[in-house]
Amino acid sequence: MERVQYSLERTLPQLKLLDEHSILSKDELRSVTSQRQGFEARLIRRKAEKFDFVRYIEFEDDLHALIVLRARERNRKIMNRVRAGDEDAKSQLLPRSFLPKQAASSSAQCVAIFERMVRKFRWDLDAWDRYIAWAKKRKMRVVAGRVFARALALHPMQPSLWISAADYELNTQADTTAARALLQRGIRTNKLTDSAALSAHETSKLRKTQNGARASREPGALRWTLTEYESDVLRLWVEYFRMELVFIERLRRRWRILGLDSGDTLVTSEPSADTTAMPWSQREGDAMDEATHAAQSVALDPNNTRNNEHKEHSSDDYLDEEDEQVAAAEAAVDEQVPDGEDNEVGSGKFESSHAAHAPAVQGVRPAADMAIPPGHHQIMNGSIPLVLLENIGQHIPQALQFYLYTALLQLVSSFPFFDSVVVKRHGEVLSIRTSQGILGSGDRLRRRLMQALLSACMRASDNGDTCDGGKLGAWMWKCIHPLYHPFSHDVAAKISTAALPASQAERELDTNALLHGASQLHAVYSPAIDALYTYAQVPADLRQERTVAGTYDPWQACQPVLFLLELLSRRLVSATHTEISRGHDGVKSPYTKTDVSLQETTAQSGSGNDHDDDEEAREHDQSHADAELDDEESIHSAEASDFAVVPEATPFMRMLTTHGDLPKVIQCAVSLFRAHQGEQEQVPLAFLATLRFLSNPLRSAVDESHLLTYIAQVDAKLVEALEPHVPWLTVEKLSRELRAHGKAAWDQIQSLVSVQRTNPCAWVLYVNAAPMWSSDKAWTFKWDGQADSSIRDAQRVWIPILDACTGATHFANDAHASVWALLTLWLGSSVVEDTSLVSPEFARQTLWLRYLDWVRDAATVSPNAKRAKRASVWAWSLYKQAVQKTGAVLASSMLVGTARESAQALHDKVVCRMSAFSLSTAAAAAAAKAATPTGAEALVSSEKTNDHAKDDTTAELDTHHAQDLALSFLLANSSASTRCWLEIAHIETMRVVIGVQDLDEPCKKRITSIFQRAMAQAEREAQVPHTVDAWLAYLSFLAHTQRDMPQALAELARAQSCIRRIGGAEAAVAFEHQWQQNVAARRS
């Protein structure tokens, strides 16, 4: 307790001061001392918690606020008495030194607590963040700088900390040089390597085979799912680029106010094709060195820094009350807060060190009669940020560069350059133009930066190690650039300036509100980069149950197109909800009402001062870090809801349509696509996807009839050119003709399947048309009166179709065609209705399920019992053959990645269909013949015997017999996945719950066998989520369906042991917590 007594004795001067001036009563002082004693006792415990320190600091802050409030209230009342004529009341005024002394005492106490907290929890970043936030709130510059330096020394691999420190220097200290040095050092410290690509080569063959794209990634492929550290480092680069833009814009505005050239003489000539491929430093030579030296001279000019103004102000005899308190507080805690080993933030050590190594460039103080140095014109031209583009290629893995370039393009597009038109991320348009020409100086600066970013993206994609996804993304950016930001493209000369909103230039010059919002560096959530991660995710309604084949994730082929079109859609379309579930055409909307609140929020923040990015980041920091991402992710959902969304054009889109500028912009984009179709193999498919996107008003808000007609004509010409090389386009075209003309398309369909014999989509179209237009009676075979000899004819039309497209090579070869088809149709119609016509994997599932349904129907329509039994045996045999044939495909070594997932999905469908068939009366009849020869052999031999031969008589079949036979066969012969077995178990359990089936011993035994197989399969796969799902389902069955809680608790121990063995102790704890939640939810 000596430490407690010592800490209390340190507060005696403050208590005496409060007692002397009667700010707190005796009882209140005793209460303060008692509470401090309790807090101090908690802090010296062997296992003190961070929360104890936080509560203690909050108590001291509240106490300080109470004392200041009472002191000011007392002085106010006394001054009122003095004004009323009571001169004697002046003696009761608190001395001027009271508040500074109180601030010093309170700050010293809080700093002492913070120091103890960061020493005890030095590796806890939250503890340092709280310390820094407190110092900033108290405006303690020296303390904040020292704490930043110590925190960075302990946590150099935390990019968010470097960004926070740079933001403090840039916006609080107005020290661009220190902010630039901090961000540069943070970038040097936090380097990225493509660890995922390196680990892919070290992954075991078994894991590659089982997990496919989740375990291995195509070398050089773009990364769409990033780790937390990778996203933090990319945010660091984006905020560094933002800082340089802020530096340029502050300089431009300052020179404009001084009446100097603020960049109106920007270089407007476009680089030639030969120089576009060159880095900017080589292209501009010595100009880049001049720009860099000029930037340092401006930053180091003592006449240009706000710090110098603060020093001059501090030398005055008079300081206001707040400055006195801050000065006294910093003087009181100066010895308590130690310096960092390398204190770069908020101290004079950094400035002097940097100045010693700065180039010998004379500081420039602008004046009205001076000549502007050439280097300063380079600053105005934006040359400094362009130097960063070279470093991106050298320090960022190629798999992540596309994300970064896109984020920088979005940042530059929405940055409030003076004398320009600003287009925000969600389509808000702001004008801060002062010039009357087509482009202002800010527009030309933005154009130069965006053109340079696109050129850098193209250079990165031309690297030989880059996959097709990076090249496709670069070309896609170049082609949609006129649609995304026409004012930074040549098409700007064709756009009418009459459509621009009223200029806010005068108000912006007075308040700098837009620049202030854009200058905030975002440490936790940066809208420019973090909002992009959701756009790149493949929508669930495209990926779920529509897996496609390939060694690696095939969506990599078209993901850049999906990503950029989603980004473009946010710029063109906003939404308002209405209480209808579907639109007029019955097509589900791709938006949900969660997007409405997001759009409304951004629309409101886009007006007035328009702190769009800053407000969004602050709201994100205050709430959950992934709140906006979850909201935006729901936009991809096409599930039915109580609300439908009516698309509404954004202000940017309305501006283009008001004076007829939209056709010019779209024609420019179409021309670019046509000009670059030969540059990259998949650019024509990207062109087709973009046309379908533009033709869908729900996604693009294009609703002008003439423009839609033009898009349709371009689409038709492109389809005609692509049809010989893209099979699914032919299938789609014939499908439309079949619906429109019927039998007239039948001959073309027959020709198609003769040419594309291994294309399951073509066979689906053939199967759709054959029952109506084929002359082959096998398509209408049933058991209600036809001879048994027609069995072979019926199988003759189905078996070759299935064999032609169910081999292992067929799964492995269907890599990318289906993803382009799914994406194109989804973009054009908002929801893909018949994916079996464009997706080979879904087509295979459709063919097999139709075949099994055909078998089931043929076996259940026979009018007499004798023929029904024979039909049931025939159907039972074919179901067994289907399970064996689809399971045999999985044994092939050719199947890895998503090809194996597709084959597994097909096999699971067949297994589930046989399990469902075992519940029918036909299966019960087949079970009675289990001891006799089964299948096609028995039926073929029956042709040689008398058709009226005596059939075996059997007893009444037990209701469980067919299900037990089917389960025994599936357990012995199938390779179903864990999820398939859980689905079968769920069906069996629901039959018991709804009363269709009694929970007797055979039923219990059967369901238990299914769960045991599911748990064993999950353990073999070594997948923690699957294992957890299997055990939770089994325990729920024991506890809630079987109502045997003792057995469930006994099995719980086994479950924890199994999950601990696969996923570790943390997974076992999470599993137990989830089980407890399920039990509690069931009871409630």
Quick take:
The chain has 1084 residues and is mostly helical. The protein contains 54 helices and 4 strands.
List the helices and strands and how they pair.
Elements: H1 2-10, H2 12-20, H3 26-43, H4 50-83, H5 98-120, H6 125-137, H7 141-154, H8 159-172, H9 176-189, H10 195-202, H11 205-211, H12 228-257, H13 273-276, H14 280-284, H15 286-300, H16 306-314, H17 321-333, H18 348-357, H19 374-380, H20 383-395, H21 398-414, E1 421-423, E2 429-431, H22 441-461, H23 468-484, H24 505-511, H25 513-518, H26 527-530, H27 532-535, H28 540-543, H29 559-572, E3 573-578, H30 593-606, H31 612-622, H32 627-633, E4 644-649, H33 651-658, H34 662-675, H35 683-695, H36 697-700, H37 705-722, H38 727-741, H39 746-755, H40 760-773, H41 790-805, H42 808-813, H43 817-829, H44 840-860, H45 865-889, H46 898-917, H47 921-928, H48 936-942, H49 961-973, H50 978-993, H51 1001-1021, H52 1024-1041, H53 1045-1063, H54 1065-1083
Antiparallel strand pairs: 1-2, 3-4
Helix pairs in contact: 1-3, 3-4, 4-5, 5-17, 6-7, 8-9, 8-12, 9-12, 12-20, 12-21, 15-19, 20-22, 21-22, 22-23, 23-29, 23-34, 35-37, 35-43, 38-39, 38-40, 39-40, 40-44, 41-44, 44-45, 44-46, 45-46, 45-47, 46-50, 47-49, 49-51, 50-51, 50-52, 51-52, 52-53, 52-54, 53-54
